[in-house]
Amino acid sequence: MRGVAPAGVLCAVRGPAEQDVVRALCGHPRELHVSRRCADLAELLAAADAGHGSVAVVSADLPGLDREAVRHLHGSGAWVVLLADLAGPAGAHALGADALLDGGDLGDPLVATVRGLLDRAADGARPGGRPPGAGAQAPSRLEAVLGGPGAAPTPSRPGRVVAVWGPTGAPGRTTVALGVADALTRVAAAENASVLLVDADTYGGTVAQQIGLLDEAPGLAAATRTAATGRLDAVTLAALTPRLDSGLRVLTGLSRAERWPEVTASGLTEIWRAARELATWTVVDCGFCVEQDEALSYDTRAPRRNGATLSALEEADLVLVVGAGDPIGLQRLVHALGQLDALGVATAHRRVVVNRLRASASGSRPEVAVRAALERYAGVREVSVLPDDRATCDGAVLAARTLYEQDPTAALTRALVELAGTVLAAVPPAPADGDARGALAGALVAGAH
């Protein structure tokens, strides 16, 4: 193994196969040795945390084993080999493991697999790397579930993710996310595409309430639980996302804010992957807080309440940064843009949106004043402006409708449609020339007039 020192292997194998694993690995004492024989998952995780092994050989049916446990092992620097009777090599990645062996391959194949992982480590690779194409969903199965060809992007045309985020102070993130998603849906209907709206606000998601879906409907928590077992794909996600009359799919948020620990980092990674397979555009309604709260815990792999927002911002092809159109809201917006800089969200991948703009809060020429302030204090020249229209918003919530359904001619509705056109031009569903992008965006805007 190119001079690799004897490596410790953690063994958490159930039944008689444990003896076979130990015998196979200990037959190569100069290269490998079993450093711990773990009775359960808790002991395995503790041994990995203590640095007692570089590779973990684990029974796939070990009680409690899920994607989050595998992620924990990866975070401790341990490669994971699953022993199971599964069909096909893709089964190793159902739980995020690095390799899969049949329960009978406990001799030379096991030794060769462990050696190969240690060679990868010697080359600088880190545990948890996913080979290209792993877990890709067969288009024919998607077509059967979603209703024919073109109902979802193929693996060669992954969908785009748009995160809608903004600072505290109720600047209207959910209103913007729902309005943009609804407008994109109307283009999607003509383009044989699809749109998914995800409520990822772990502090107070309200997407379900705004459009009249039951609070108890399975949503983000159910998708995360399914991802933990390695069973989340585009088809499963489709079953968890009810469709509105317009065709918009919705993954509702947490029914109670205290359930935020159920939303895990490994689960979110799988949700974004499945969402890109399911929908042409995925619009994510994010929470306000981006504090790196795991730094406050001794256990850096503890659940993070802000993990959903941070994950969405990292995954997004475009971030819509929403702020309120008043002096306090603008100050918070300027600070929020600095937070995105600290997180590494590139300026080219974000669009500033000033919401609830009104003369009573920003002067007689509010749009001019807001644009000048943002250019002066944040260096932002391109801004989308949304007028304050409380009557239309209240009517839509009361009737459980989208703004377009409530009043397609309202000033706020037209502004949201124009914003959706901007999103479409920035993150088109597939490579296209500028004329095609402009035609689609123009058709979208024209539909609101």
In the predicted model, the low-confidence regions spanning at least 5 consecutive residues are 86-90, 131-152, 432-441
Q: β content, as a range?
A: 5-15%
Kindly provide the radius of gyration, computed on alpha-carbon positions and rounded to a whole number of angstroms.
Answer: 25 Å
Strand order of the largest sheet: 8-7-9-6-10-11-12
Distance between the termini: 68 Å
Binned, the helix content reads: 40-55%
Concise summary:
The chain is built from 18 helices and 12 strands. The chain is an alpha/beta fold. Strand 3, helix 3 and strand 4 (79-83) form a beta-alpha-beta unit.
Structural notes for this entry:
- This protein is an alpha/beta fold and 449 residues long.
- Helix content is 42%, strand content 15%.
- The chain contains 18 helices and 12 strands.
- It has helices at 17-26, 41-49, 67-75, 108-122, 139-146, 173-191, 207-210, 220-228, 234-239, 265-278, 307-315, 327-343, 359-362, 366-378, 390-399, 403-406, 411-426, 434-446; strands spanning 7-12, 32-37, 55-59, 79-83, 99-101, 160-165, 195-200, 249-251, 281-286, 318-324, 350-357, 383-387.
- Helix 1 links the parallel strand 1 (7-12) and strand 2 (32-37).
- The longest helix is centred in the middle third of the chain and has 19 residues, at 173-191.
- The N and C termini lie far apart (68 Å).
- Mean pLDDT is 83; it is low at 86-90, 131-152 and 432-441.
